[in-house]
Write a structure and sequence with these properties.
With 245 residues, the protein is an alpha/beta fold. Helix content is 39%, strand content 17%. It has nine helices and eight strands. The protein binds SN-glycerol-1-phosphate. SN-glycerol-1-phosphate is lined by residues 14, 167, 169-172, 195-198, 216-220.
Length: 245
């Protein structure tokens, strides 16, 4: 992935391989190409099918938009992708997701040849339990505690993580607030990814204005792929600050 691509606000379309039937994928990719979508994130907290490789191939056969793995577990690693969000769940206190799984999967990740993007992953309470909050077995950061989010992100950056990801969880009732995004973005210098429960182009726009560098949308685009154009336009109209990445 080219460094400069992080220099503008970006839309990442999240694809859940369990829900990516070929006809749906066709439509999603075509609309993403038309809208100049920046990234595909592929993965999920829980994957039921074994469609990961087929899904990545399906995307890569159709376009050259970078495919970035967003894995729920080390089982979701495929060398066919372009890069890997190497997630450490810094908002939680589950040692397995902070470092344990990484130790076990490090040789396989190295062998994969994937570009590794060390990411401080922070789950924010989205108003109700989500798959990620349940599966991670770790308490999310309360939605109104921007100071906890800010200190966690800062610690992640100072530990050397190259990206911070604030996630309210897939299908979250309440997305991450602009107040929390702003508090975090003002203090960190690495790119900030924000996702979970974003349902409108307006919210995508407001997140970027508040300081998100990459907005991730999955569920609402699965339900209404035509929203991709609106979401991308909203994100791309916000000027980016420069980031050291
Ligand atoms: C979840 O941030 C992603 O991890 C996207 O969430 O599916 O709710 O858009 P949605």
């Amino acid at each position: 992935m080219e460094q400069k691509t992080w220099g503008r606000k970006a839309l990442a379309v999240l694809i859940d391989p369990d829900k990516a039937a070929p006809a749906h994928l066709d439509k999603l990719v075509q609309l993403s190409l038309d809208a100049a979508v920046d990234y595909f994130f592929i993965g999920g907290s829980l994957m039921v099918s074994d469609q990961l490789d087929a899904c990545i191939r399906g995307v890569k056969d159709r376009c050259s938009i970078p495919v970035i793995l967003f894995p729920g577990s080390p089982a979701q690693i495929s060398p066919s992708a372009d890069a890997l969000l190497y997630l450490s769940l810094i908002s939680g206190r589950n040692p397995e997701l902070l470092i344990g799984q990484h130790v076990l999967s490090a040789p396989a990740v190295k062998r994969s040849g994937l570009e590794v993007l060390p990411t401080g992953y922070m789950v924010i309470d989205g108003g109700a339990p989500t798959t990620v909050s349940y599966i991670s077995n770790a308490a999310p950061i309360p939605a109104d505690k921007s100071d906890i989010a800010l200190c966690t992100a800062l610690a992640g950056e100072m530990l050397g993580l190259k990206l911070i990801y604030l996630d309210a969880g897939s299908g979250a009732k309440k997305p991450v607030s602009e107040e929390m995004i702003r508090a975090v973005a003002e203090q960190i210098s690495v790119p900030l990814i924000v996702g979970g429960g974003i349902r409108s182009a307006e919210k995508a726009y407001l997140n970027c204005k508040a300081g998100a560098d990459v907005v991730v949308v999955g569920n609402s685009l699965e339900k209404d792929p035509l929203l991709i154009g609106e979401m991308a336009a909203a994100v791309h109209q916000v000027c980016a600050r420069s980031k050291n990445f």
